[in-house]
Amino acid sequence: MFLPPAPFLANPKEPKDFPLGRWNLYVGGAGCTVDGYLNIDLIATPGVDVVADAEWLPFASGVFQRVECDAVLEHVRDPQRVMKEMERVLLPGGYLHVVTPFCHPFHAYPRDYRRFTIQGLKQLAGPLEVIAEGWRAGPTATMLVFALEYVKLLLPLRIWRAAAHIFLGWLLFPLRYLDRYLMRFPEAHRLGNHSYVWFRKPGSSSALIS
Ligand SMILES: C[S@@+](CC[C@H](N)C(=O)[O-])C[C@H]1O[C@@H](n2cnc3c(N)ncnc32)[C@H](O)[C@@H]1O
User: Fold this and answer.
1) What is the CA(152)–ligand 1 centre distance, in A?
2) Cβ pair 32, 39 in contact under 8 A
3) Which candidate, 124, 129, 118, places its Cα nearest to that of 194?
4) 32 pocket-lining for ligand 1 (C-beta < 6 Å)
5) Among 79, 128, 77, 131, residue whose Cα is nearest residue 100
6) In terms of Cα–Cα distance, which of 97, 108, 107 is closest to 37?
7) 51-107 pLDDT, tens digit each
8) Minimal CA–CA distance to 116: which of 125, 103, 128, 105?
9) Which one of 34, 93, 138, 152 is CB 3.0 to 4.6 Å from 179, fit for a cystine?
10) In this model, does residue 121 exceed pLDDT 60?
11) Cβ neighbours of 139 (radius 10 Å)
12) Where do the structural domains in the chain lie, given as residue ranges?
């Protein structure tokens, strides 16, 4: 009830509306309701349709019109293999949306192996074409997320950490609007928080709903 607003503002320029098809796949959506998608995750929790490792997607090739992979690649052992798997299950002409952290604290789900630049992410993409790329959350989000984590490190008791999260969250969140200004500058990527890339599998298909 007292939870503060998120310390980041999602970039309104990030495209959201590439077409869905009859079958769409959401990779790593434990705890999320993802209407219109088949939700696969390593962990069986409410909302998950298929429990599987994204390194071995249990689907035939060329099935999905859209694949979403949001804040998952940093948790897998072999991100290149996961990118290959997502490319394999996409229909020709289908879209893959990948979001990855760059400057972000350690968070294990259940492991946390690495961070990505946009260049690094594109280097994993094989034959996929890049349709759009950019930053979902910028330098101020990075500074706020790290400040909250830093203060919590100084507090030994869990209850104090929870109180600090609520108090500082409310105090600092208005600063997130600075990213509206900072994100105009190309140098903002040096401290970017999360980035996105939209990929398209070459070829075309007639499996779109509309
Ligand atoms: C940081 S959470 C992201 C959740 C959601 N996509 C979101 O943005 O709110 C990472 C998710 O990836 C899942 N995950 C981690 N490794 C995985 C793997 N090898 N295969 C499938 N899912 C995995 C975790 O269980 C967790 O639900």
Assistant:
1) 24
2) yes
3) 118
4) yes
5) 79
6) 97
7) 999 999 999 999 999 999 999 999 999 999 999 999 999 999 999 999 999 999 999
8) 103
9) 138
10) yes
11) 21
12) 9-137+190-210, 139-182
User: Which tens digits make up the pLDDT trace of 5-41?
Assistant: 999 999 999 998 898 999 999 999 998 889 999 999 9
The band of 210, judged by pLDDT with boundaries at 50, 70 and 90, is very low
- pLDDT, residue 1, reads 62
- The answer, yes or no, to whether any atom of ligand 1 lies below 6 A from the CB of 6, is no
CATH superfamily of 9-137+190-210: Vaccinia Virus protein VP39 (3.40.50.150)
Ligand 1 nearest-atom number relative to CA 68: 6
**Which residue's CA is the closest to the ligand 1 atom numbered 15?**
75
Distance 72 CA to ligand 1 centre (A): 5
Asked if residue 54 has its Cβ within 6 Å of ligand 1, the reply is: yes
For the Cβ of 42 lying below 6 angstroms from any atom of ligand 1, the answer is yes
- Residue 10 in contact with ligand 1 by CB distance below 6 A: no
* Rounded (to 5) percent helix, strand, coil in the chain: 35, 20, 45
